[in-house]
């Protein structure tokens, strides 16, 4: 930090309590200057030699006291003095020639006080106003961090400062340095982001483009807005760097923006609502200037402050919902999440190039539902279905996420009926489950039995297909005699022993396949697949014997849990 020392005499100001300041001298004090609640007992001569305003005030006071023979000291009271007693004391010490130190923290107050007291060159050469101007121009405004400190101090002195245009000078100084080519940055700055390491040694780092953003985070929002606007007006800083600056500021200043700040006690809600509104106003028009994570966290903060409906963030977040992470949206309630998906659908309703975006939103919603299912109070069956069905047509490479969400809901809501379980399971396409998800599903007693059978069927088909491709043999497709039932008694209609046998055959087949691949490198035992086929035949035949065969009643895809048989001819396909 830059500083400047003025005067050469020792500082002999002394205090008596908290409200009296005086200069010990053989000469009696002849003027009392009252600033706020502090009384200064001083001498007229040193003050009058440098302050035109004190000359006028003392002259006026003396003339009014001419008839008072017992008056020994003139008393001057200044109700509003820039910087208060501290800045007046700096000016008084300068008048006495005592040592006084100016720095970034007190220079603005001293400058305003000197201007108020009219300590100009016309009164005495080398007066205080002149010396402070030199200090500001040669040192303060040439220094990055000192310029920021000085700008902060101007807020408390805005009434006097604006006339002197010190705020504008600070803004220009800061904006010019933030806009400079990074290769020319030679001053120190705060930058807490992780540096790259190589073999434990720190690599030489080029100055990052956003080197300046953290140093501005301590500014009040009123000053921060002016700084960012001034930087943008210069046109040399890209919009994404402005976005980084806003992210850093929000992270430090906005309650609820980060998880750690969500527990902060808010005493002035209106203040923070205005803060969020100001940050939103500063977001550049370019879409990619701020990340989706920034927007979702800002929306979360506005929810925390109770002002999200006023901010207009819903459309911004919903439009870019495909870029959001699960952690970003977990604090949103189900109704808000549904509203965000609705906004996304309006923005991405038919474009072919939105396939990837829709797949990302589907994955996000699947994860959201799985996590929200842990809260049995906030996520009802109807809300689960409503949100899941909004993205049911979205492309997915796998339905593992859908299965996980359904399974988690069933686990935390054991009270739901069989028909309700069926409604949930219709969201899932068993053909798109991974081998790991299938292995879990076939052992999952929370699923309706019909779903378990379908999973087993497609797992067996996949296993036979893999075996056929490895051995060169073709295995006939196994098609169930019937895949539809409209009764509520699915679980009771299947032979439990057959289900257990089927699970065992599949497990045996996988084990045999793995062993053969290790020992014979590709030679597979074909008996496992055939055994499973026999169990399937027995399973469907027993269903026929029970009189539960139903004609086709739907057109759903073969993998959906509400699939019906395509035609009666399929019933004749058996091993």
UniProtKB/TrEMBL annotation:
Biased composition annotated in UniProt, kind: Polar residues: 509-519
Pathway linked to the protein: Protein modification; protein ubiquitination
PROSITE patterns with a match to the protein in the record: BTB (PS50097), NPH3 (PS51649)
Residue intervals of the NPH3 domain: 210-462
Sequence segments annotated as region (Disordered): 464-495, 507-529, 541-575
Pfam families: BTB, NPH3
Keyword Ligase tagged: no
Annotated BTB domain residues: 29-104
Low complexity bias locations: 464-475, 548-575
Organism superkingdom: Eukaryota
Keywords: Ubl conjugation pathway
Endpoints of the signal sequence: none
InterPro entries: BTB/POZ_dom, NPH3/RPT2-like, NPH3_dom, SKP1/BTB/POZ_sf
Keyword NAD carried by entry: no
Family (UniProt): Belongs to the NPH3 family.
Annotated protein name in UniProt: NPH3 domain-containing protein
Origin species: Brassica cretica
């Amino acid at each position: 930090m830059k500083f400047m020392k003025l005067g050469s005499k020792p500082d002999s100001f002394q205090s008596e309590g908290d409200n009296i300041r005086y200069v010990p001298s053989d000469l009696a004090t002849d003027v009392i200057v009252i600033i706020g609640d502090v009384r200064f007992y001083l001498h007229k001569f040193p003050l009058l030699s440098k302050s035109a305003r004190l000359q006028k005030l003392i002259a006026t006071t003396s003339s009014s006291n001419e008839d008072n023979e017992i008056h020994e000291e003139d008393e001057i009271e200044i109700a509003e003095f820039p910087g208060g007693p501290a800045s007046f004391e700096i000016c008084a010490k300068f008048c006495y020639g005592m040592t006084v130190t100016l720095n970034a923290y007190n220079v603005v107050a001293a400058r305003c006080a000197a201007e108020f007291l009219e300590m100009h060159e016309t009164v005495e050469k080398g007066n205080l106003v002149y010396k402070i101007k030199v200090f500001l121009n040669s040192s303060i405004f040439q220094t990055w961090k000192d310029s920021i400190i000085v700008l902060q101090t101007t807020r408390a002195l805005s009434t006097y400062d604006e006339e002197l245009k010190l705020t504008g000078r600070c803004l220009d100084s800061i904006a010019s340095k933030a806009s400079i080519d990074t290769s020319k940055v030679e001053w120190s700055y705060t930058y807490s982001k992780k540096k790259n390491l190589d073999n434990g040694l720190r690599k030489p780092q080029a100055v990052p483009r956003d080197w300046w953003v953290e140093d501005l985070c301590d500014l009040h929002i009123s000053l921060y807005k002016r700084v960012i606007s001034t930087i943008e007006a210069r046109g040399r800083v890209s919009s994404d760097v402005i976005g980084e600056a806003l992210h850093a500021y929000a992270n430090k200043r906005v309650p609820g923006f980060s998880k750690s700040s969500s527990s902060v006690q808010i005493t002035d809600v209106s203040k923070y609502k205005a803060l969020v509104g100001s940050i939103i106003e500063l977001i550049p028009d370019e879409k990619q200037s701020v990340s989706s994570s920034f927007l979702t966290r800002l929306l979360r903060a506005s929810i925390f402050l109770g002002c999200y409906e006023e901010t207009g963030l819903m459309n911004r977040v919903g439009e870019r919902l495909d870029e959001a992470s699960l952690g970003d949206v977990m604090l949103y309630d189900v109704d808000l999440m549904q509203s965000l998906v609705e906004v996304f659908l309006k923005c991405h309703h038919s474009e072919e190039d939105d396939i990837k975006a829709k797949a990302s939103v589907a994955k996000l919603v699947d994860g959201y539902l799985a996590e929200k299912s842990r809260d049995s109070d906030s996520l009802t069956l109807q809300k689960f279905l409503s949100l899941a069905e909004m993205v049911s047509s979205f492309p997915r490479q796998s339905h593992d996420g859908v299965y996980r969400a359904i399974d988690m809901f069933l686990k935390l809501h054991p009270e739901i009926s069989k028909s309700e379980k069926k409604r949930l399971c219709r969201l899932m396409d068993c053909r798109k489950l991974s081998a790991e998800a299938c292995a879990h599903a076939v052992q999952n007693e929370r699923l309706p039995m019909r779903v378990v059978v379908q999973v087993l069927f497609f797992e067996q088909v996949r296993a036979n297909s893999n075996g056929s491709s490895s051995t060169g043999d073709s295995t006939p497709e196994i098609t169930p005699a019937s895949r539809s039932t409209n009764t509520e008694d699915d679980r009771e209609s299947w032979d439990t022993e057959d289900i257990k046998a089927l699970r065992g055959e599949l497990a045996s087949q996988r084990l045999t396949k793995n062993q053969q691949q290790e020992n014979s490198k590709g030679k597979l035992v074909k008996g496992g697949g055939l055994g499973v086929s026999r169990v399937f035949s027995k399973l469907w035949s027993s269903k026929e014997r029970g009189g539960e065969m139903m004609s086709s009643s739907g057109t759903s895809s073969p993998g959906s849990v509400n699939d019906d048989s395509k035609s009666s001819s399929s019933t004749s396909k058996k091993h």
